[in-house]
Amino acid sequence: MSEIVQVRAEREYDVLIDCDWRNEFARLVTGRTRVAIVVSASFRSHVGDLPNVGAEIHFFEIPDGEEGKRASTLELIWHSLGKAGFTRSDLLIAIGGGATSDIAGFAAATWLRGVDWGVIPTTWAGMVDAAIGGKTGMNSDFGKNLIGAFHSPLCVLIDMSWLATLADRDFSAGVAEIVKSGFIVDNEILR
């Protein structure tokens, strides 16, 4: 059974921990006409087919990792949203690690001055940091995450089965992020 943690940022939203993302995805998109799925090119095959939800599903593949957090990627997402006719009543969903959720969230924050979005993080770092708090952004020539906005998602769907897709290095990096959080906020997590 999923645990629900409520997050307060510029608006309240739920983080569903240990959920089945496909079931929750179906609930999240109910009543939407169009849904944009932003996913990195190399991760697209892991998503597979989505449940039939009665909405137009548009996949927007972006470059992997930090390469995807550039102005050219943001412009590609905006162009794709416009071409597909996305309105304020449609939904954008990021499926991937922190870089994917950062740029997808920034696209959601800036398309039509802010549209609804959701996050399905697939890495430890995404689950414990990037997807939480409404931080969105992109890199510039002068540094990482210098351009962005705070735009909270409707919800964050954490399905622990995604962790099986991680390389050992990425798994360890995510655990290090959890340990760092423990030292900063809550020593109990270190136990």
Report on the architecture of this protein:
- The chain has 191 residues and is an alpha/beta fold.
- Helix content is 33%, strand content 29%.
- The protein has 6 helices and 9 strands.
- The strands form 3 sheets. It has a 4-stranded parallel beta sheet, sandwiched between helices. A 3-stranded mixed beta sheet has the order 1-2-9, covered by helices on one side. It has a two-stranded antiparallel sheet with strand order 7-8.
- A hairpin with a 3-residue loop joins strand 1 and strand 2 (12-17).
- Helix 4 (98-110) packs across helix 5.
- It is globular and about 50 Å long.
- It starts with a strand and ends in a 7-residue tail after the last helix.
- The model has no long low-confidence stretch (mean pLDDT 93).
Main features:
9 strands; 191 residues; alpha/beta; 6 helices
Q: What's a quick, concise take on this entry?
A:
This protein is α/β, with parallel strands linked by helices. Helices cover 33% and strands 29% of the residues. The longest helix has 17 residues, at 168-184.
Low-pLDDT regions: none
**What is the number of E strands?**
9
H/I helix tally: 6
Sheet/helix structural class: alpha/beta
**Helix and strand element order:** EEHEHEHEHEHEEEH
| Strand content range | 25-35%
